[in-house]
Amino acid sequence: MQTAYTVLILLMLVSVSRLVGRVIALPLPLVQIGAGALLAWPTLGLHVALDPELFLFLFLPPLLFSDGWRMPKREFWRLRGPILTLAVGLVLFTVVGAGYFIHWLLPSIPLPVAFALAAVLSPTDAVAVSAISQNRLPTPLMHMLQGEALMNDASGLVTFKFALAAAVTGVFSLANASLTFVLVAVGGLAVGVALSWLVGRLRSWMIARGWDDPATHVVFMLLLPFAAYVLAERLGASGILSAVAAGMMQSWLDLLPRQTSTRLLNRSVWSLLEFAFNGLIFLLLGLQLPDIIKAVVSHETSLWPTLLYRCLDVVAIFLVLVVLRFVWVQSIWRLSGLLRRWRGKGEMVNVPTARSCWLLTVGGVRGAVTLAGVLSVPMLMAGDAFPERDLLIFIAAGVILLSLVAACIALPLLLRGIEKSPDDKRRSEVRDAWRKTAEAAIHALETEEVTPHDAAQAALAIELKARIMSEYRHQLEVFNDSAEAQALAFQMDLLERRLRLKALRAQRLELYKLSRHHQIGDDVLREVLGELDLSEANLGAVK
Asked: What is d(CA 442, CA 448) in angstroms, rounded to the nearest whole number?
């Protein structure tokens, strides 16, 4: 029962922290870390013991799967060059540079373990950046950070596992590691794509036979990232990349016909799951902070001087990570410009500025994946305690906190004076999509031949077709290219939505009255209320 109570308390804190984050001008991860630390204060004394392997298995697959699902694929492909240089090149650059620096700064940490720490400090968290910047970052930069966060989760954690294996076995060969890295990565991607495709085919087969219960299909989606992770690990491939690939593949398979209800439920469930898991990870970081600090200073005679020196070590490592990232971003952009001129393509349309480089540098916030990875470090190595495990967790936790605080201070300053320009291209694509789909619907209705049994049904069918076609013609007016026509159509649309909303609310009040007077049962109440709620949700926000 104690475990159940702890889980319920943590989930309640995740929800409360979201409300507190709206009042306090701090990013949500910092609020959640503070709440966890407060809960672990000696007077409250909540303690959570974490199994590293269980922590890695429970939290990482669904988060990586969700990131792969949500990533805009077209933008990812267009920015594949910068994203890959950040997600793969920068990770390796960070592992080598920061790894040697950590070993030089803290000789008690063996070099392979220092490389492992540098690798687990490489993954970034685009969700935290979006929360801090309040979606004011230029769209290309935000897409680059999202793509980098998606890919370097995999590359950083795979490199982390290789470095850990080298630390445990004491054997490392660059040639063998490079070949194994490619095989493990390709194998993980193949397993994730294949398993996701098989699940999609299974769902399509079930839907074709009328087995389209949304809850059943959502359960399949919830189990898919764990299945992809476990299967890939059993086959000796990367479970991390397998979960990412399964999510990216599933975003294409999500367009199966006859599953509108499943998609609505699936998105709601995954939004809830992602919010809860991200919040739990940062709460657990806060809960572990007192134990981490005690473990780091437990072998020292003096408390505060030792803690101060360790904090200075964290600051030094964080600054080195920032410098390495800035150097890499500047160098790659300059090299890209030279290559474009050498190939005769001229200068880049959007020439990177110093502000853009600093936005990308400060935007490399560490988050949930870094914490999940470092907490998965084994307790023992060859029967002995893993070298400086507590110090590794302390450094990772400190870097996460510093990166969040630095982003909170620097991003608003860097974004000062920048008004996010409207995405005219996206708006144009939205208008084209609505216009073309409305034209297709009108054409389908025009060619539809109804064979009623009598003249009365024929007249009714013609009236219904005209009514539906008028709604689609109204859509065409709304998305007309003429500004005057759009303004008039939007005014009419707003008035119509207000009237429909008023009518829906009157229906709901009458429904409650019927229930209070026991004229309808609870099952009828739930069914009709669900339809009314869905209709109101479809209206969107009405001002």
From this structure: 10
Q: What angle do CA 267, 373, 20 make, to 5 degrees?
A: 55
Assess contact for 49 and 86: CB atoms under 8 A: no
How far is 66 from 311, CA to CA, in rounded Å? 34
- CA dist 342 → 290, 337, 339, 428 (Å): 55, 9, 5, 34
Which residue carries 């399509």 as its tokens? 204
Q: What is the distance between the alpha carbons of residues 10 and 440, in angstroms, rounded to a whole number?
A: 50
Side-chain-facing half-sphere of 273: CA atoms under 13 Å: 22
Q: Indicate the pairing of strand 380-381 with strand 384-385.
A: antiparallel
Cα 542 versus chain centre, distance: 29
Looking at the predicted structure, is the pLDDT value of residue 523 above 90? no
Instruction: Give 381's strand partners.
Output: 384
Residues 6+ apart with CB under 8 A from 183: 237
Q: Which residues contact 251 (CB under 8 A, 6 or more apart)?
A: 68, 69, 70, 71, 73
Q: What are phi and psi of 381, to 5 degrees?
A: -140, 115
Which pLDDT band, with edges at 50, 70 and 90, does 347 fall under? very low
57: tokens are 């298995």
The predicted pLDDT at position 376 comes to 74
Give alpha helix (H) positions in 298-388: 304-342, 354-362, 368-375
Question: What is the C-alpha separation between 324 and 373, in angstroms, rounded?
Answer: 21
pLDDT digits (tens, 9 = 90+) for 21-52: 778 777 777 788 888 888 877 666 677 766 66
Q: Which of 256, 258, 254, 292 is CA-nearest to residue 270?
A: 254
| Kind and range of the H or E run holding 381 | strand 380-381
Of residues 433 and 159, more confidently modeled:
159
CB under 8 Å, gap of 24 or more: what pairs does 82-85 form?
A: 82/144, 82/332, 82/336, 83/144, 83/147, 83/148, 83/151, 84/151, 85/328, 85/332
Terminal CA-CA length for the chain: 47
130 or 529: which carries more pLDDT confidence?
529
Q: Which helix (H) or strand (E) holds 499?
A: helix 483-516
CA 410 – CA 208 distance, rounded (Å)? 53
Least Cα distance to 406 among 280, 322, 287 occurs for 322
Q: Which of 48, 66, 440 is nearest to 222 (CA)?
A: 66
Q: Which two tokens stand for residue 434?
A: 């609505």
Cβ atoms of 332 and 82 closer than 8 Å: yes
